[in-house]
Amino acid sequence: ASTPGSPVGLASVADSFVFAFDIDGVLVRGGEAIPEAIQAMKVLNGANEFGIHVPHIFLTNGGGKTEEERCADLSRQLLQDIKPGQFICGHTPMREMASKHRTVLVVGGEGEKCRVVAEGYGFQDVVTPGDIIKHDAATTPFRKLTPEEHANSRERDFADVAIDAVFVFADSRDWAGDIQIMLDLAMSRGGRLGTRSETLDEGPPFYFSHNDVVWSAAHEHVRLGMGALRRMFEVTFKDLAGGKGKLRTHAFGKPQVSTFEFASRLMSRWRSTEHGLAGPPQTIYFVGDTPESDIRGANAVNEEADNDWYSILVKTGVYQDGTEPAYKPRVIVDNVLDAVNYGIQREM
Ligand code: G3P
Ligand code: MG
C-alpha cells in the first residue's frame, strides 16, 4: 500500500490492485441495492482489517442517462459518493464515434434522455424515433406519440435527410416501433427514410451499446435485454431480404475487449487523479454476474493485457448457482461482499 496523496484521508491506498464492478445483478437489482453491496463499498473504502482503501471503478452495460445522472443514482443506492471519473456505461465508448457520423438516429431509453446524452457526447445532428413518427404517424401503426412525446419530438422534413448511422443507446421502450424504423433504414437507400434499396445493402451501420440477451432485474428470472432486440432485428431483416442484402451491426459494451481496455485507461486516470498513483495496477479484480459478457470479456482482456484481470462470478444475478457457466471465472463466490473480501485477503 502506498502512503496517501489523496482526498481519501488517512486510510492508506492499495497500489497494486483495484476492483471493477458490473452493476446489474452484482450491486443493484431492479433499482435497489443488493444488501451485501453497501457493506462491500464500506470495505473498499477502508472498513477492513488492514484499514486500506482499494481504488475501484464501475463498468455496466446499462445506460440511458448521462454518466452524471447514473452516478447520482448509484451513489444514492450504495450510500457512497460515486463520480463519473470512475464510471463507464454501455454507451460511454460511443463518445468516440461522435465526429465520425453527421446525422444519427438514437434509439432507446426514457423520453429525450438518450438524445441529451448523444448531444453531450458531441453528436452533431441527433434524430429520435419520436421525430420520425411525428413527421409521419403512419410509420408505426400501433404506436402513437403521447402529448409530451409529441411536444418533445422535433419537427423535420425527412425528404432531404440521410441518416448516417444508428446508435441503440439503451433498452427500447417500444420494440415494435423501434424495430420497424430500424428495418426501414436498413432497407433504405443510404439511410433516406421512405426509400427502398434494390440490393438491400445500402443501409447505415447499426451500433448497439451492448449485446446482453438477458439481464438481471427485479423479477426472479432474467429479463430480455438489448441483445434480444438485436437478434429480432437481424432475423427479421434476413426474412424480409429473402437471402439478399447486407446488414452492418456492431455491439459495444462487455464482452468486447475494447470496452475493457477503455476501462483500463479510465482506471489509470482515476488512480492518478484521485489517489496520486502512477502506472497501472498489477491486478484488476472484475466482479460480474453474467458469464457471457462479464467473465468472457475479463478473461479475454486478460489474454492481451500486461496486468492480471482476475474474473470473479457472483450468484446474485444472471448466473444460477449449480449450473455450469459458459465462460469459467477464476473463482465463484456468493455475492459482491465475498468477492471484495476474497480479493483483499488474496492480496494482503
Ligand atoms: O441493460 C443492462 C444490462 O444488460 C446489464 O447491465 O450492469 O449487468 O452490465 P450490467
Ligand atoms: Mg450484470
The distinct bound ligands, ions and cofactors come out as: SN-glycerol-3-phosphate, magnesium ion
H/I helix tally: 10
Termini Cα gap: 9 Å
What are the secondary-structure elements, in order, as H or E?
EEEEHEEHEEHEHHEHEEEHEHEHEEH
Write down how many β-strands occur, each being a DSSP E stretch of 2 or more residues: 17
**Spatial arrangement of strands, main beta sheet:** 7-6-2-15-16-17
**Which consecutive residue ranges, at least 5 long each, have pLDDT under 50?**
2-8
Taking the sheet with the most strands, its summary is: 6 strands, parallel
What is the 3D shape? elongated
Radius of gyration over C-alpha positions, nearest whole angstrom? 21 Å
The chain-level structural class is alpha/beta
Strand content: 15-25%
Estimated helix fraction: 25-40%
What's the rounded overall pLDDT mean? 95
Describe the structure.
The chain has 348 residues and is of the alpha/beta class. Helix content is 34%, strand content 16%. The protein contains ten helices and 17 strands. The strands form five sheets. A six-stranded parallel β-sheet has the order 7-6-2-15-16-17, with helices on both faces. A five-stranded parallel β-sheet has the order 9-8-10-11-14, sandwiched between helices. α2 (67-78) links the parallel β6 (56-59) and β7. It is elongated. The site of magnesium ion (MG) has 9 residues, from loops.
